[in-house]
Design goal:
64 residues, 5 strands
Length: 64
Amino acid sequence: MKTGDLVKWTFAKTSSTFNVNNEFRLGILLQEEAAPRQSWTILLHDGETVHADVTEIEVINEER
């Protein structure tokens, strides 16, 4: 993963309580965060930014 990658972000991917329908949003990786390790700030398609754990992120298309 690197800055500029197009990603699919799924909050609470494995939760049976918080995201029962396994809904996701598309976004662009903005920057890797220092803590927790392997987390990223993502710019979502609607302009919102979120701090996401690596387990919630799936790369769709890598920036070249």
